[in-house]
Design a protein that fits this description.
By secondary structure, the chain is an alpha+beta fold. Helix content is 32%, strand content 20%. Strand 5 and strand 6 form a beta hairpin. Helix 3 packs across helix 4 and helix 25 packs parallel to helix 27.
Length: 953
Amino acid sequence: MKYNPNEIEEKWQKYWAENQTFAASNNSEKPKHYVLDMFPYPSGAGLHVGHPLGYIASDVYSRFKRHQGFNVLHPMGYDSFGLPAEQYAIQTGQRPEDTTRVNIDGGVDKEGKQIAGYRKQLDKIGFSFDWSREVRTSNPDYYKHTQWIFIQLFNSWYCRKEGKAFDISELVKVFSEEGNVLVEAVCDDNVAIFTAEEWNSYSEDQKEKILLQYRMTYLAETEVNWCPGLGTVLANDEIVNGVSERGGYPVIRKKMTQWSMRISAYAERLLQGLNDIDWSESIKESQRNWIGKSVGAMVTFHVKNHDEVIDVFTTRPDTIFGVTFMTLAPEHPLVSKIVTIEQKAIIEAYIEKTAKRSERERMADVKTISGVFTGAYAEHPFTKEAIPVWIGDYVLAGYGTGAVMAVPCGDERDYAFANFFKGQNGMPEIKNIFNKDISEAAFGAKEGFELVDSDFLNGLNYKTGTQKVITELEAINQGSGKTNYRLRDAVFSRQRYWGEPFPVYYVNGLPKMIDAQYLPIILPEVEKYLPTEDGLPPLGNATIWAWDTKNNEVVNTDLVDNFEIFPLELNTMPGWAGSSWYWMRYMDAHNETEFASKEALAYWESVDLYIGGSEHATGHLLYSRFWNKFLKDKGFAPTEEPFKKLINQGMILGTSAFVYRLEGTNTFVSKNKIGDQKVQPIHADVSIVNSSDELDVEKFKNSREEYKTAEFVTDENGKYIVGREVEKMSKSKYNVVTPDDICDEYGADTLRLYEMFLGPLEQAKPWNTAGISGVFGFLKKLWRLYFDDNGLIVNNDEPTKDNLKSLHKTIKKVAEDIESFSFNTSVSQFMICVNELSTQNCHSRAILEPLAILVSPYAPHIAEELWSQLGNKESISTVAFPVFEAKHLVETNKEYPVSFNGKMRFTIELPLDLTKGEIEEIIMKDERTLKQLDGKTPNKVIIVPGKIINLVG
């Protein structure tokens, strides 16, 4: 009976689907375990072999936990809103909802492309997902709840005193009874103080404007990353080297009115929560750096000849007497107010140039020094000296106050800036306030110095100096101690079509929430997915996009009368909206009235294991933790943290192929014939290159019109040899290997085992299709333990000690490896075990039945078939995991090397409990000993029980 993976896998995938084998129950007596994958964005490119790595790992773990008796929730869905689908729609003239659906379900798109579909690709790999709970973030029955969460945020404020969010009605009550003077809230800067009497006298519009300064989500004019090419605002993590990650379009800094979320309110809780979760230290550190807590002081500098002040946050207030100049971010609102006429043109040119660089690029670029003197001066709070004010792009408007008091003697970047502009107008000599030499570099340490030339701080160190300065600043009303965070409020608007509509309409220009009972507000049809001719977002093209407050429905925009019918919000929510709470929807995916019932939330609580890519270290993971904490405050989420344990899988890299075109020609030279010639390397499709690195020249010529007339310089054997390089697997690099092809040729179990075998889960590793055949050979060898050409050969023979030893070594190793996520060494152990059992000619049911269970998490299809063929009626998926028995690994015999005068001549296996005398008696009677001694008597017999036997003389 031959191993036929395609037939077996189709059979069991059908069985699992029909029997809902992996459907989790919300009412189980079993202990729960929730395993989650970061769900995919369903692009038309489909899956390549790098995508399933984390899914296979989570599936192995999920299956293992079922074998251990857990009720496992292992769901899957699609993060289906976002830029890629919209860009594709713009390019091809298709509706984003149509392309998204085809990309998920498969079919033929408008351009006639055959799309495999994510669902079919995932099913083909044999995942134990609970598909009954599938979610798609772009489905109205899902984003209805995303809109509801937005409303909860709008109707909430954050109390600093209690350290949590409360309903906005409680704040309104405080305002009406006490005013806002004693309110400790996270709110906009410079909120005006008012009494209860004043509040109660305000109009409804005035009250609403004030409340917007306190709400958890609010409208504000914000510096954003504007991408004209995409027509939308981008998050920092969507920008690479100053251009959009999607499409490579230039990005500029621009002020726009945007919805924002007060994630900054949760900065300290987000920081402290990292101590309570099992995440890698590198991911935690990424989040700590992003949150960026720093303790120091806020210092106020008056601008000379202006009625303006510059507020600066500094972590080194002790260095205040070393301030040599000040630097503002180019976007700082004061720049246009204080710049002199002489400097105006150069300042404006510099600002325009800087607007083309992203914040991330400016932060990362520590080598480039640039800046311009404004011509203005600030006044030192103590000495009253004039301090020149510059602008420089190393200062960011979104960090601190967007202003720096530059102390070059104590900061490397300020030191480099001061020396670069040394001698120019507006750049004084560096002041040294440390009893240290700064002729070569700044002194940045916080210990090992005394302050000098620092007035009342002379002789003090960092700690006492800091305390003293803060006291004196407070005394002259020009500063105070402060804890600051780098974390900025998150912009929550996108000027795009394919996203969640806001449940917001506008009355007198002020936002109003649509009542939750009328959700979802469904994305309308539009003819164009580009912004309108007058620059409005794509929803400005919608003809039916106004809110009728009388009938509570969306109506034609022509009916807007600003009396009963009002305009709806034209922006949509960002890509991270739907992914910031999706794990809770899986808990109760078909609940029509709530995002999840209290009972379901109480049962599943939070995710026990989360697996996904490290590229989400800050964006998605930080926003998810923020929303979870907010929903906990409001009594909806049961836990403070959403994900107990997080593992970031490494990337599977592709082996790219390169052809080499002679510069300025259409001639391609074989790698081994290049010599000193100047060539341009070009990616070639790996599918037309064989394992010997030979290019199929004719197929390459036909791959693109421009190559049809190309000439090829081959080697002596008439072959064109390509170059190879390991890099990210990507469609643009033509190095993609699809899992479908591997499954068709070798089977999904081979793919699963091979991906786990490649190396440690968290490390990057190159894909090499040549290695697949070895894993396929292992599965065939496993099969032959159970079957020969005539059928099943499993018997009821009593297993030998060696059989049991091989099995229990494997039970122990596999259980330990899965718990520690060392999946690659488990696969190695399977191979060792099968080799040993084959050598032992083992066909015992007592060994092979538990072996099938051990293999099941990794290669579930073959395991199900073996289990069934052994006569079992139920699925193998929930059968108890074999129990390790240490007694089978206890050695009772020892194979001794027997030496004569120190030279080993033969070995003998003896029981370990023999005495020295018993061992000597056996050895002296052995025929091989008698032959070696040839009638002689040894002078000495050295025996170390369990180690050596040596006959001397």
